[in-house]
Specification:
4 helices, mainly alpha, 82% helix, Helix Hairpins, 107 residues, elongated
Amino acid sequence: MTIFKIFRNYFFLALWKIRTIIFGLIAILVVDASAIAYFEKMSFADALYFTFVTGLTIGYGDITPVNPIGRIIAILTGIQGLIITGIIVAVAVFALRKTMEQTKDMK
């Protein structure tokens, strides 16, 4: 088995074990999108796009909240995005560590 396949297996196994956390964070992003759509008077599709772009810490800037409540929700969404990014990085580090341990034993 190649190193990448071993890494991929550990990565997705770890994600599967924390799936409830991941799905919960995604659900909160959808709730944030609903709140943004309500307070900013925009379509849910645009609000969902804005929320995921903000939550993934991409931040294109093509859609921005204009009222204070929308801005607060956007800030909280950005903080949640940092948490999601941190979890994904932690899972990747775990998978890499396990991969290195397994390949060391193979030699």
